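Notes on consecutive records. When two proteins share a document, each keeps its own sequence and its own token line. Never mix them. Below: protein one.
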Amino acid sequence: MGKEWNWRPELGRWSLDEFGLPGRPAFVDISTTLVERSQAYEFWREIAFTDFEADPGHKAARDVFRARAKGLTWDGADFFYTNSDAVSGYRDRRQAERDGLDSISVGLVLRGTRKAALPGDTEMISEPGDFFVYDGRQPSSVAWSSHEAVFLVVRRAELRSALNGRELDAAELQAQLSRSPLQHMLRDQLRLTARHMQKLDAAGQTLLLQQAKQSTFLALTGPEDAGPGAESTLFQAAINYIQHRMSDPNLSADQICRALRCSRATLYRAFATSGAGIAETIRDLRLDGLRRDLEMGETDRPVADVAVGYGLYDTANLSRQFRRRFGITPSEIQNRRRR
């Protein structure tokens, strides 16, 4: 059992010294909904930001400001979904020294625009679908438009270990994520975490946060260097890659290795850990896609034409493989739909 954690918004701004972090994930939901409209921005400015000093709001913003943040906080990592009107602010070295926070946020913009300025005239702009990185120890200024975003907060020591001791600033980390071959996997994982975080018990939430963290490290380092536990994340990345390229007749283990930048041994180990074979998984995912299409798509298209869209060109063996997996042939599914 983790230690009890008693922070609530009515207790004022959270601080590491006063409240610490819970030993198991705790769900947090903060909103301006029940706050008097004229006080909403100041409430958000005071309560919602722990490693960021929001700028004072002008009167027009104060009169209409609305925001909500919900997520999980834990001594292993944090994860939040936010939906907020425009907000801006800054972080300086004195704040970092004063509050002692030493974490890095890796997030995904769902709606709106994020602009960040770092020392040395470095500017980072993130639009919907883009990643963003925020380092609480690095001085910066940030300006958000009205937006939605999800972000994972990892501890610096863990990230440094995953990067084999390297220290990268926010701009370098953000650039690395944007060119990672696993960026699609990470986007899916962040969205998945947001969708399921409130539905699970503490054990499930812990697993969800660990998967999000491992996906982040894997995207930043590559499969060969991500350390223990990377196999399951690499397996999911491979599944994601296969699902997006099922129509490619040349889809193979070698192509997946090149795309994910891992060796054949690493990929086969990831599939073996998950109890699956690569060729069999590709075939089964193609058959699964074909079945969904036949059950929901047009009924007058020849089965062979539909199958080609999933990379299934061996029409002589298609019905046999399909029946072995589902106990029914493709033609029987089409006939059932027509009836």
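Protein two starts on the next line and is unrelated to protein one.
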Amino acid sequence: MNATNPTHTDLAGRTFLITGGFGVLGGAMAGALAAQGANVALLSRRPYPAARVAERFPDAAAWPGRLWGVAGDVLDPAALAEAVAATLAEFGAIDGLVNAAGGNRPEAMTAPDRRFFDLPPDALRWVFDLNLLGTILPAQIVGRHLAERRRGVILNITSMSALTPLTRVVAYSAAKAAVSNFTQWLAVHMAQEYAPAIRVNALAPGFFLGEQNRDLLVDRSSGALTLRGEQIIRHTPMGRFGAPDDLVGPMLWLLSDAAAFVTGIVVPVDGGFSAFSGV
């Protein structure tokens, strides 16, 4: 396709399934896709009626694309298969998957009163399963459909802590590093075994304020940065935390035909954090 053709970034009429689409980052990506005219199936463990989707996305009525909630658990292959079948019945095809589900829990992190040696296996396993298996299993279920169509795109969400492990977040850093590795592996596998037109890439967000990390970075009572928050901002050349919309441009590029020759990469969206040595 001619690089000057504006249609190479056009996602209108395409259908994407997003895990974690009701979250802060996943929601920003879902809304941006619908605003571009794409259909978006929002996967959630609980079924969300149309009214709940409208509440989460109040501007959706003005967007040319559709947002549609579908029940499914990223750790339950049978439920995922049912969600994919329902999405296909609703939209006819799936053009791509965005694996935005993930998270951490305090019990899997070290702290002054929580030594590495004492971290409980069930908490570590919870973080590993949600972030790694919660990416692999949707890729299996949706990937089967993409393989049958011989085209499509998978976009995983890893983390800055996958590139350089952060203190305290031992399980999350390890799980997200595995997601980055899996992204590269799956990109090669899908292109060689099924079709070169199936692409797999990932975004590695830097530091974005959310409910999971807010108490680590900001003092809720004063609004001032914590010591950890100050360290992050000092190490971020752009001098701020990321906003959810900062992920939209890289996401649209990787999902569109503008990135037709791009597969197996992890794109940092971090304000320069990964480029800065600290001096």
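For the record: The longest strand covers residues 198-205.
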